[in-house]
């Protein structure tokens, strides 16, 4: 009999966390929740703890009230150190990192150094600290598994091939809710409009990133580090139906694509079960119901965040961390009505223009660049006058 693998779900109360718990529910003999974490959603985490009975439950926000925390078989803890403890717990084999933003980097590093498999939904880990993440995996014996649907698709397509045979990665993008919108319309976009994604139901930050196409730039950088492919051989194409999750072109000109109706449960399951494929009950693919599959170029003039992010990737060092931090600040400001939709890209552009460069030798370099970019983007946004 195979012993169930212990899983830590960092960000269990979020959208990916929900998909992950649905996967665990279908395979209790293979996976059990050992650690569940949330930021400050006490009722949400409490409900998950009652249902899944993990060893440890963590509220990452140290301000979350201890008095609200229950007893039982689960040990409750708060703060960033407790989050790291969950990611490195001895009973944990697999860490699903489903945190949002640069906050995910340190748990990723800690888990890889502790030799865990990291099923990585938190793309910002690789964007901010790609070289550090790869080094932590090599030194600690940890293993990175993509969860992002595009990267899971690429990972599935390259199984059985040599790295030297991979010619080009083609990431698909839904194009978001404003795929065909005019620049005038984009200037008027409100948070409620941007939060209505046409094909995926996700957390607020990634939904806005999908609308600005910053998400696709983050994913180009993520693919560069995950698959070791140079930026010149990674492309993005708009595919509004979100059926083809990405494609790989090989040396002989053959192109493989991975497809299916949009769901994050399949990529999560594959990241947990790899190299095995386990049975799974879900809506099965129906090509006729999927209908026509279409492709369009990315409109870089209307969605400058994409171009800015890819340029930051190419610049290397801490530039991607600066891009990411400015984007996080700008997205939060947009959601609070403090900056316009086009203002998100303007804040990123202004911050990157002021950045004088810097290499990544240590986590300290990333944290410094991240803090600098947050301050700079806040100043830019503070100086904007919204009509
Ligand atoms: P979400 O907002 O729905 O959930 C985020 C989770 O992380 C919650 O449990 C929240 O409590 C916790 N959290 C938030 N900020 C935190 C912090 N600073 N410290 C500790 N915990 C914190 O987000 P999501 O949509 O599930 O996305 C999670 C990650 O997965 C992101 O990096 C996103 O880009 C990536 N991703 C998401 C999807 C998707 O379909 N939702 C698809 C691909 C990739
Ligand atoms: Mg994706």
Report the uncertain regions.
none
Strand content: 15-25%
- Examine the coordinates and then state which fold CATH places here, giving the name of the CATH topology of the largest domain: Rossmann fold
Task: Give me the number of helical elements.
Answer: 16
Oligomeric state of the chains?
A: single chain
Mean pLDDT: 96
Strand order across the largest sheet: 4-3-2-1-5-6-7
Q: What is the annotated CATH architecture of the largest domain?
A: 3-Layer(aba) Sandwich
When the domains are counted, the total is: 3
- Helicity range of the residues? 40-55%
- Using the coordinates above, name the CATH class of the largest domain: Alpha Beta
Structural class: alpha/beta
Bound molecules: nicotinamide-adenine-dinucleotide, magnesium ion
Short description:
The chain has 387 residues and is of the alpha/beta class.
How would you describe what is shown here?
The chain has 387 residues and is of the alpha/beta class. The protein has three domains: 5-147, 3-Layer(aba) Sandwich (Rossmann fold); 149-261 and 284-302, no CATH class; 316-387, Orthogonal Bundle (Rna Polymerase Sigma Factor, Chain: A), CATH 1.10.1740. The protein contains 16 helices and eleven strands. It has helices at residues 15-26, 42-52, 80-88, 105-113, 124-140, 149-157, 183-188, 191-194, 204-212, 214-227, 265-273, 287-290, 304-315, 319-335, 341-354, 363-382; strands at 5-10, 31-38, 56-59, 75-78, 94-97, 117-120, 143-146, 166-173, 234-238, 244-250, 255-259. A seven-stranded parallel β-sheet has the order 4-3-2-1-5-6-7, sandwiched between helices. The protein has a four-stranded mixed β-sheet with strand order 9-8-10-11, covered by helices on one side. Strand 1 (5-10), helix 1 (15-26) and strand 2 form a beta-alpha-beta unit. The longest helix is centred in the C-terminal third of the chain and has 20 residues, at 363-382. It is globular and about 55 Å long. Bound molecules: nicotinamide-adenine-dinucleotide and magnesium ion (MG). Residues 148-150, 219 line the site of magnesium ion.
């Amino acid at each position: 009999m195979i012993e169930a693998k212990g899983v830590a779900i960092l960000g269990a109360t979020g959208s990916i966390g929900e998909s992950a718990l649905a996967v665990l529910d279908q395979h209790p003999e293979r996976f059990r929740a050992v650690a569940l974490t949330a930021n400050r959603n006490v009722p949400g985490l409490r409900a998950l703890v009652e249902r899944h009975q993990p060893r440890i439950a963590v509220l990452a926000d140290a301000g979350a009230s201890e008095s609200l925390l229950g007893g039982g078989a689960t040990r409750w803890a708060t703060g960033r150190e407790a989050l790291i403890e969950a990611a490195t717990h001895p009973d944990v084999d697999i860490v699903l990192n489903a945190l949002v933003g640069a906050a995910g980097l340190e748990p990723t590093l800690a888990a890889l150094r502790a030799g865990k498999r990291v099923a990585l939904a938190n793309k910002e880990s690789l964007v901010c600290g790609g070289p550090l993440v790869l080094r932590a995996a090599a030194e600690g014996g940890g293993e990175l598994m993509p969860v992002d649907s595009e990267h899971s698709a690429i990972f599935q397509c390259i199984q059985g091939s040599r790295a030297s045979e991979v010619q080009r990665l083609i990431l698909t993008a839904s194009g978001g809710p404003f795929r065909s919108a005019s620049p005038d319309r984009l200037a008027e976009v409100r948070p409620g409009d941007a939060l209505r994604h046409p094909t995926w139901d996700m957390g607020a930050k990634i939904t806005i990133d999908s609308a600005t196409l910053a998400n696709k730039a983050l994913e180009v950088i993520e693919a560069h580090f995950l698959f070791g492919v140079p930026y010149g051989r990674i492309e993005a194409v708009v595919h509004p139906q979100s059926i083809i999750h990405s494609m790989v072109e090989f040396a002989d000109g053959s192109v493989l694509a991975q497809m299916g109706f949009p769901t994050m449960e399949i990529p999560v399951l594959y990241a947990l079960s790899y190299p095995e494929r386990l049975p799974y009950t879900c809506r099965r693919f129906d090509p006729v119901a999927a209908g026509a599959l279409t492709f369009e170029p990315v409109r870089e003039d209307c969605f400058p965040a994409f171009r800015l992010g890819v340029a930051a990737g190419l610049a290397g060092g801490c530039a991607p961390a600066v891009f990411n931090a400015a984007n996080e600040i700008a997205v939060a400001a947009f959601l609070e009505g403090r900056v316009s939709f086009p203002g998100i890209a303007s804040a990123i552009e202004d911050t990157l223009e002021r950045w004088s460069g810097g290499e990544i030798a240590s986590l300290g370099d990333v944290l410094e660049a991240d803090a600098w970019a947050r301050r700079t983007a806040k100043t830019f946004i503070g100086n904007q006058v919204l009509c």
